[in-house]
Automatic annotation (TrEMBL):
Superkingdom of the organism of origin: Eukaryota
Lineage of producing organism: Eukaryota, Amoebozoa, Discosea, Longamoebia, Centramoebida
Segments crossing the lipid bilayer: none
Listed GO biological process terms: fibroblast growth factor receptor signaling pathway; positive regulation of DNA-templated transcription
Family stated for the protein in its record: Belongs to the Churchill family.
Signal peptide interval: none
KW rRNA-binding (keyword) present: no
Keyword list, A-Z: Activator, Developmental protein, Metal-binding, Transcription, Transcription regulation, Zinc
GO molecular function: zinc ion binding
InterPro entries to which the protein is assigned, alphabetical: Churchill_sf, Transcrpt_activator_Churchill
Protein name per UniProt: Protein Churchill
Species, as recorded: Acanthamoeba castellanii (strain ATCC 30010 / Neff)
Length: 114
């Protein structure tokens, strides 16, 4: 990770979880060569099972190959829910949980309280 390349270290992204790409608004330029070029994806690895998926890669400067950040994305099926998570100092931290059922039991219970 290179703090010189970032506007903010690991910004909170709420429910946003990227399995590819880069959060360019948080990139202030390469801390090594000083260029503000596109970010390339390197060392991409995907691991999948029947219920899980993990994607990891590096964000690198397209000019000098300086390593900006490591990116990790996970997807998991947990019972009746799909869970997503992203952890990256460039793209930030985010997680989401979505019901695979037509009516989300947790949200229905939440509205029954009123």
């Amino acid at each position: 990770m290179c703090r010189r390349c970032l506007v903010h270290v690991c910004p909170q992204r709420d429910r946003t979880c990227l399995s590819s790409g880069s959060y360019l608004l948080n990139f202030k330029g390469c801390g090594e060569c000083g260029k503000m070029e596109f970010i390339k994806i390197a060392e991409l690895e995907k691991n999948e099972t029947e219920t899980d998926e993990t994607v990891t890669y590096q964000h690198q400067c397209s000019e000098c190959s300086h390593k900006i950040a490591d990116h990790e994305y996970t997807f998991t099926i947990d019972g009746e829910y799909q869970e997503y998570a992203m952890n990256c100092v460039l793209c930030g931290y985010g997680e989401d949980r979505v019901s695979i059922m037509p009516d989300d039991p947790e949200k229905i219970a939440q509205y029954d309280m009123y």
